[in-house]
C-alpha cells in the first residue's frame, strides 16, 4: 500500500506524518500528527470499509509495547479532529461498539500512479481537486493490480517506486537540513558562568542563570529585540533549572538553601516560583511553594491551571506529586510499584506529563500520564549504539517536531513520543550544553563553554595553604598551587598510585575524556581510547597499583598500565565505583531492579552483598569495617550491624560530594575552605588547614598530601544557533 493517498479532500503523506486539507479556493492546510496516529490511519486505510478490532490495531501499531486502550482512543480522537469529524458524526472513522473501528471514506491513491495505469498524463505532486471530486459514494480504490497489461504493471511499479523514493529523499533531506545549525551568535559575554538557557513561550526573551561563584546564581532574562538584560531574582541563591508556565507569566524552579554546607539548615531543595512579568520591572523575591519537609523534591514541570508537577521522594519511594502554585498542599498523583522515576519532561500539552524511569529490568521507560496521574502510555526507550542505556536523559520538548531534543557532546539527538532516540545532527560547534529549541521559530539556544581545571596537591600539615597566586608556565594563568600536568582543559579525579609514584587522572585534553598517567619523571601517558559517547564513572586503583577499575557504559572495566582492558561481566549496570579494598572487595553503586543500590562486590567470586538500597553520593569502608556514606542531603552516616546513624559532628562540615578515608580517619572540606580530619575511633574532630577558594573536589590522600581540583576558569556563555542563509 502506498504511503500517500487521498481521503475525500485530504491528502495523507504517511512518510512525513502529514495530513493536508485541500480547500475549494485552492488553499491548503497542513497538520502534523504523531507517528502512532498516522500508523493507525495507515492500517485502517489498508482495510478500508472493514471493522478492525481494537486488539488487532494495538498488536499492529504497538507490537513491541504494552499500552492501554486509551492510547488507541487518543489516536482516533486526533484523527477525527484533523478531518473535522467527531464521535457523533463518525463520517470518516466509525466506532463499532465492542468490536473496533472502520474507515468509512474511500481511499484514493496518488494521481501519478493512477495515470501510469491508465496511460494518461500525470498531475503535479499535490494537485488541486474539485470540491466534489471524491464525494461519489461509488468511488473505489485505484490499485496497481487493476491493470491487466504486463507492461502497464511494470510502468506503474517504476513510477510508483520513483515517486516513493523521491518523497523519502525529500523528507530525509528536509529533516537533516532542519537541524543543520551552522550560525552561532553570542547572546552574552560575561566573566561569570551562565547556564540553563530557555526561551519564553512567546520567544521574545531568553532566560538563563548567571553564577556568582561555582553554585550561587541569579536568574536573568534577555530581550532579543532590544538586547536588554533583566535580573529576575532579587537575591543570589542556589537555583536549579527553571520552567515557564503555559501563559509565560510565572517561572518555577528548585532552590537550595545554601551552597557552602556550613548552614544550620538542611541542604535540600525547595520548590519556588517568581512572577515573570513583575520581575521584568524589578527583581523579585522567590516565593516558596513547597519545602523539603515534603520529601526530596526535583524536576518541576508546569501543568494547566497554574499547577506544578514534581518528583517527590520519601523513604526511597519516588512519586509524581502535584502542587498548586498558590497553595502549599500536594497530591501524589502517580506512585508506581515497578518503576523508579528519575525525571519529568515539560510537554507542549500541559494536560499531560512525560516521565522518565527505570523498570525492574533496568530498562529505561518513557511514561505518559494525564494531569490526574492516570497512565496513558508506556514505551521502552530505544537507545542508539552511540548512547549508553544507563545514560540519564534531560531533554526539552520541540513543539514543531513533536519530540524532545537533547545534546551529548556535540551531537544533537531526538527522543520521540514513542521512546525512540535518533541522531538529528552533529553540531558545528564544540562545548555546547543545554540545547533548547524556540517555540515558534527554527532556532536553538544553548550554553557554550568549558571548565579549565587542574590537579593540584596541598599539604595538610601546613596550617594555612594560601600561598601567593602563581602563574602557570604554559599560559600565565593565575593559579594558587602548582598544577600536575597543566593544560587548558579539564583535569579531575587525581589518584595516587598505591605502592608507586605515579598519579592517574581524567583529562579531556585530546577532545574526549581519557584516563592518563603521570610517572615520577613527569612523563605523561594516555592509557585509554574511550569514545565520545562513553559514560564513565570515577576510577579506583587496585591495591597493588597495577591497574584501575571503572564503570564504562554501565560495565565494570579494568584498565592496565600496558593500555589493555578487561571487562567484568555482571548481571546489573554499575553507575559508580568508590573503593577497592586490600581484601579484594569492591564498593560500587549499581542499579538493581531499577533502584540505585550500594553493594560490596567480592572480586574473587563476583558475589554481591547489598549494603544500602538507596542513593548515596559517596561511600568508603574504614579499616575497622564500618561503612561511611554521604546521603543526598550532604549528611555523613555510619552503617554498622546495629543499623545506620548520622555522624553528628560532621553535620555542617561537608561541601561537595566526596570525602576521603585514611585508615580510620575521614578527611573532608567545608564551605569555609577548611580541610578537616575526623577520627572515627575517638570521634575527635580537628581542623587541619585553610586552602585557596579555587581548590575543591578532594580526590585522594597519601601520607600528608591531598589531591584535589583547582579551578583556573569556568566560562560558559549563552548563544543562539541558527541556520545560515549562505
From TrEMBL:
Q: Name one Pfam family in it.
A: PD40
**Ranges for domain OmpR/PhoB-type:** 2-105
Q: Which PROSITE patterns match?
A: OMPR_PHOB
Q: Which InterPro entries does its entry note?
A: 6-blade_b-propeller_TolB-like (IPR011042), OmpR/PhoB-type_DNA-bd (IPR001867), Sig_transdc_resp-reg_C-effctor (IPR016032), WD40 (IPR011659), WH-like_DNA-bd_sf (IPR036388)
Q: Which family does it belong to?
A: Belongs to the TolB family.
Matching PANTHER family: PROTEIN TOLB, PROTEIN TOLB HOMOLOG
Q: What is this protein called?
A: OmpR/PhoB-type domain-containing protein
Which species is the source of this protein? Thalassotalea marina
Amino acid at each position: 500500500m502506498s504511503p500517500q493517498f487521498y481521503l475525500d479532500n485530504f491528502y495523507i503523506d504517511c512518510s512525513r506524518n502529514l495530513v493536508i486539507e485541500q480547500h475549494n479556493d485552492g488553499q491548503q492546510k497542513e497538520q502534523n500528527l504523531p507517528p502512532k496516529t498516522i500508523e493507525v490511519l495507515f492500517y485502517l486505510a489498508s482495510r478500508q470499509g472493514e471493522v478492525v478490532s481494537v486488539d488487532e490495531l494495538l498488536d499492529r501499531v504497538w507490537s513491541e509495547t504494552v499500552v492501554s486502550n486509551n492510547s488507541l482512543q487518543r489516536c482516533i480522537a486526533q484523527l477525527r479532529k484533523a478531518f473535522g469529524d467527531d464521535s457523533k458524526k463518525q463520517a470518516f472513522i466509525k466506532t463499532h461498539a465492542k468490536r473496533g473501528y472502520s474507515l468509512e471514506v474511500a481511499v484514493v491513491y496518488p494521481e501519478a500512479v493512477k495515470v501510469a495505469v491508465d496511460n494518461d498524463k500525470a498531475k503535479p505532486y499535490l494537485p488541486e481537486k474539485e470540491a466534489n471530486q471524491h464525494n461519489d459514494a461509488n468511488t473505489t480504490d485505484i490499485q496497481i493490480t487493476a491493470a491487466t497489461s504486463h507492461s502497464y504493471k511494470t510502468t506503474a511499479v517504476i513510477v510508483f517506486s520513483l515517486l516513493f523514493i523521491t518523497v523519502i529523499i525529500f523528507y530525509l533531506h528536509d529533516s537533516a537540513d532542519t537541524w543543520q545549525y551552522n550560525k552561532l551568535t553570542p547572546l552574552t559575554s560575561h566573566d561569570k558562568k551562565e547556564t540553563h538557557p530557555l526561551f519564553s513561550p512567546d520567544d521574545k526573551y531568553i532566560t538563563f542563570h548567571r553564577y556568582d561563584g561555582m553554585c550561587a546564581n541569579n536568574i536573568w532574562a534577555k530581550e532579543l529585540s532590544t538586547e536588554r538584560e533583566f535580573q529576575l531574582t532579587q537575591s543570589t541563591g542556589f537555583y536549579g533549572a527553571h520552567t515557564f508556565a503555559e501563559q509565560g507569566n510565572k517561572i518555577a524552579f528548585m532552590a537550595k538553601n545554601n551552597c557552602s554546607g556550613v548552614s544550620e539548615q538542611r541542604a535540600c531543595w525547595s520548590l519556588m516560583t517568581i512572577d515573570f512579568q513583575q520581575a521584568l520591572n524589578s527583581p523579585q523575591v522567590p516565593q516558596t511553594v513547597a519545602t523539603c519537609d515534603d520529601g526530596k523534591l526535583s524536576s518541576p514541570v508546569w501543568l494547566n491551571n497554574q499547577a506544578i508537577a514534581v518528583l517527590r521522594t520519601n523513604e526511597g519511594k519516588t512519586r509524581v506529586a502535584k502542587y498548586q502554585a498558590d497553595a502549599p498542599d500536594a497530591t501524589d498523583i502517580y506512585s508506581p510499584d515497578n518503576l523508579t522515576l528519575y525525571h519529568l519532561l515539560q510537554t507542549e500539552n500541559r494536560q499531560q506529563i512525560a516521565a522518565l524511569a527505570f523498570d525492574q529490568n533496568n530498562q529505561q521507560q518513557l511514561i505518559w500520564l494525564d494531569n490526574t496521574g492516570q497512565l496513558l502510555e508506556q514505551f521502552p526507550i530505544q537507545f542508539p549504539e552511540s548512547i549508553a542505556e544507563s545514560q540519564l536523559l534531560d531533554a526539552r520538548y520541540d513543539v514543531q517536531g513533536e519530540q524532545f531534543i537533547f545534546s551529548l557532546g556535540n551531537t544533537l539527538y531526538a527522543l520521540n513520543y514513542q521512546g525512540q532516540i535518533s541522531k538529528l545532527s552533529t553540531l558545528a560547534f564544540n562545548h555546547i550544553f543545554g540545547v533548547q529549541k524556540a517555540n515558534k521559530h527554527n532556532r536553538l539556544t544553548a550554553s557554550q563553554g568549558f571548565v579549565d581545571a587542574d590537579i593540584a596537591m596541598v599539604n595538610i600539615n601546613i596550617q594555612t595553604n594560601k600561598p601567593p597566586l602563581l602563574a602557570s608556565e604554559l599560559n600565565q594563568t593565575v593559579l594558587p598551587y602548582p598544577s600536575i600536568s597543566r593544560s587548558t582543559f579539564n583535569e579531575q579525579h587525581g589518584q595516587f598510585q598505591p605502592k608507586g609514584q605515579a598519579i592517574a587522572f581524567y583529562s579531556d585534553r585530546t577532545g574526549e575524556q581519557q584516563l592518563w598517567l603521570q610517572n615520577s619523571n613527569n612523563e605523561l601517558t594516555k592509557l585509554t581510547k574511550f569514545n565520545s559517547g562513553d559514560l564513565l564513572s570515577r576510577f579506583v586503583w587496585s591495591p597493588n597499583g597495577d591497574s584501575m577499575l571503572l564503570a564504562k557504559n554501565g560495565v565494570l572495566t579494568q584498565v592496565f598500565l600496558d593500555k589493555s582492558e578487561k571487562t567484568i561481566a555482571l548481571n546489573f549496570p554499575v553507575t559508580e565505583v568508590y573503593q577497592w579494598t586490600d581484601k579484594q572487595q569492591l564498593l560500587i553503586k549499581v542499579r538493581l531492579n531499577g533502584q540505585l543500590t550500594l553493594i560490596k562486590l567480592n572480586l574473587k567470586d563476583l558475589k554481591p552483598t547489598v549494603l544500602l538500597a538507596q542513593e548515596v553520593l559517596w561511600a568508603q569502608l574504614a579499616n575497622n569495617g564500618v561503612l561511611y556514606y554521604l546521603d543526598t542531603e550532604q549528611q555523613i552516616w555510619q552503617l554498622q550491624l546495629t543499623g545506620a546513624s548520622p555522624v553528628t559532628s560532621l553535620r555542617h562540615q561537608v561541601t561537595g560530594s566526596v570525602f576521603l578515608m585514611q585508615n580510620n580517619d575521614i578527611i573532608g572540606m567545608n564551605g569555609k575552605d577548611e580541610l578537616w580530619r575526623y577520627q572515627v575511633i575517638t570521634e575527635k574532630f580537628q581542623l587541619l588547614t585553610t586552602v585557596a577558594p579555587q581548590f575543591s573536589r578532594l580526590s585522594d590522600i597519601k601520607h600528608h598530601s591531598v589531591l584535589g581540583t583547582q579551578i583556573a576558569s569556568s566560562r560558559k556563555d549563552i548563544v543562539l544557533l541558527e541556520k545560515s542563509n549562505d
